Amino acid sequence: MAALPRRIIKETQRLMQEPVPGISAVPDESNARYFHVIVTGPEDSPFEGGLFKLELFLPEDYPMSAPKVRFITKIYHPNIDRLGRICLDILKEKWSPALQIRTVLLSIQALLSAPNPDDPLANDVAELWKENESEAIRNAKEWTRRYAMDN
Amino acid sequence: MGMCWCKKKNEEQGCYYAPRLSTQQDVVLPPPSPVPSPLIYNNTGPTASEPKYPDTVLVDKLILDTLGLIETLVDNEQEPPSAMLQLHNIADNEEGWIQVVNSMIKVIPLADPLGPSVITLLLDDCPLPSKDSIIKVVDMFALSHETALKERNNPTRQRNTCVALGSIAEKLAGPRNMEILNDGVIDYLLTNLEPETNPNVILFSLIALEKFAQSSQNKVSILNKLNKTNISPIRMLEKWKTEIHFVKRQAGFCAQWILDNIFMTDDRKYSYLSANMENINAMLNTSDVSEYLKISPDGLEARCDAYSFESVRCTAQADSGIWYYEVLIITPGVMQIGWATKNSNFLNHEGYGIGDDRFSLSYDGCRRLIWYNAKSDPQKLPRWQPGDTLGCLLDLNNHQIVFSVNGVSLPPSVHVFSMAKSGFFAAASFMSFQQCRFNFGAEPFKYPPSFNFNTFNECGALTADEKVVLPRHIYLRQLRQQNIREDSCTLCYDQKATVRLLPCRHAGFCASCADLLAECPMCRSPFSQLLIEDYPHT
């Protein structure tokens, strides 16, 4: 394995020592660049009560390029497609090397609180979200219950 | 080049727009079958007789079509074959996903060198299944000690089941993973490890156990069952690591790796402690390898069981003269083996490896292609087989690379020398479930060139520390205990933070990182000057 950059070691140590409320990020036992992430659905959002699994991978040139993050748990959200890919500016053109794993995950949690159907990744979800928000929210709640809650 | 279209697309477009079924022109799904079709192999439930959509025959055919076409796909820019797109769409529906899994298990032949990779690839690329459908599939398999014994006469089905279980486990690390791995599944996989089982089934049962054990609770459940056996079946299989039966040998390699990395016990010494490294002066470089490649304790054999395209370079470097090394092909699938400089990047998750950039050149004897800069050039030799010897000759006097298979040479390749004329390393990339062994000259060569040449083993040198292939968990534990100084650069933590950006006056960076910045990482404003401070106060 290529030598692990100190930046990744430092972030990992900090994530372990001072975990972020509502978010768990655990490095893979055999791959220090891969994190198993669980984000709890924010209160007062249709995702409340759900536990969403994500994978986060730090590419070779991290932190000069953004982590790659993907939802593993199915989620009904206009900015997340059916393969779990996330449309979030800081993961793309708005990435800055001063951002960290913890800030990225907080932004994703914030995206769950505030879906943005005007910048969609899942077109059909976004359309419904704009045309009939209450039905979209009902779907989101139903998906949360079906896929993100145990039992 | 490895195979992962959807990821590649994700890279290139800022946002990926999933194809919408309703507007997709070229995908025509057949109408629902009017006759109830026995769609799923099922020995338990009544669901099998319900009419489902679309029918089994079509899905079976699409899977075989994908398998047949996969070899011809050599370009990440290329659209995936329509059979594969159709399978994606079918799997978008939960019943469809279940059917795709069942069909794969039924129809993928044991002998096809790309079979297991195709199962992994399709499961990885298909939409995410819900917990319910995964549990439904696993329940339908009704796996147990008894099914393991009963299915021994159908190794194809058994092997494919294990491959699918492994891929699903990998997709679902964490709590979900635990719900699938019930007692029956563990018993099934452990029973499969008995030496009477088909070696292909043993191999993929080991790999499935390894993937399940990625979640720690599963690991405990498996260990508990393992401890109840008199002699650990994995310990028995470890002895196969030098077998000439190449499937058994793979199982031996995986067994050893699992014992060193996952199911460690107090009464077994780590293999690296007893590896004989006396005559080894060059090996695969454990600090110059992508994350998931498995390297043997003697540093000369490598294997990939991940779905990414894993790469490695050797420890010694060739700068002038003629160099030669050989590779024993252990698996018949896609590996790209050849030469690379340090400028060649390992983009394992994007499917780029050796031969996929301008600083490396490789031969893939499965698809029979020479690779340079991600472009392939078809060759006329037969497809390589386990036991074949690939010869890799680098002639820096005449600037050419010549590959040979069992002593039969391919025409020389010259492209890479427009970019580099020295600084070459032996290097290779592996698709999932591929394995080979390198000989840098510590052993006699099988097909040495008839003229004088250098070998890495003769010219290389390694310190005692460099010869240690440390299991990853030990290495990572050591790393995490490192102390990092608080006055370090906030971007790399490697060097002291001495740079302040002007005019915004944000600080906390080292000179090397500041060099890479286009704008201030804190406020995104452009900066025109760097102020170097010895004792910055941030």
Short description:
Chain A has 151 residues and is an alpha+beta fold. Chain A contains four helices and four strands, in the order αββββααα.
Helical content of chain B, roughly?
Answer: 25-40%
For the largest beta sheet of chain B, what order do the strands appear in spatially?
1-4-13-6-7-8-9
What CATH architecture of chain A would you give? Roll
How are the strands ordered across the major sheet of chain A?
Answer: 1-2-3-4
Q: How many strand elements of chain B?
A: 17
CATH topology of chain A: Ubiquitin Conjugating Enzyme
Report the helical percentage of chain A: 25-40%
- Percent of residues of chain A in beta strands? 15-25%
Largest sheet of chain B: 7 strands, antiparallel
Mean pLDDT over the residues of chain A: 90
CATH class of chain A equals Alpha Beta
Organism (chain B): Dendroctonus ponderosae (Mountain pine beetle)
Pfam families (chain B): SPRY, zf-C3HC4_3
Keywords (chain B): Metal-binding, Zinc, Zinc-finger
GO molecular function, one term (chain B): zinc ion binding
What this model shows, in words?
The complex is a heterodimer of chains A (151) and B (538). Chain A is α+β, with helices and mostly antiparallel strands and 151 residues long. Chain A has one domain: Roll (Ubiquitin Conjugating Enzyme). Helices cover 32% and strands 15% of the residues of chain A. Chain A contains four helices and four strands. A four-stranded antiparallel sheet of chain A has the order 1-2-3-4. In chain A, a hairpin with a 6-residue loop joins strand 1 and strand 2. The termini of chain A are far apart. Chain B is globular and about 70 Å long. Chain B is an alpha+beta fold and 538 residues long. Chain B has 17 helices and 17 strands. Chain B has helices spanning 5-12, 56-70, 82-91, 94-107, 115-125, 131-141, 145-150, 155-171, 175-180, 183-191, 199-212, 216-228, 233-238, 246-261, 456-459, 472-480, 511-516; strands at residues 284-289, 294-295, 301-304, 310-314, 322-329, 335-340, 360-364, 369-372, 375-378, 389-395, 400-405, 408-409, 425-430, 434-439, 499-502, 507-509, 529-532. The two termini of chain B are 46 Å apart. In chain B, the strands form three sheets. In chain B, strands 1-4-13-6-7-8-9 form a seven-stranded antiparallel sheet, with no helix packed on it. In chain B, strands 2-3-14-5-10-11-12 form a seven-stranded antiparallel sheet, with helices on one face. Chain B has a three-stranded antiparallel sheet with strand order 16-15-17. Classes of the chains: A alpha+beta (151), B alpha+beta (538). At the A-B interface, helix 1, strand 2 and strand 3 of A face strand 1 and helix 16 of B. Chain B: Residues 489-524 form the RING-type domain.
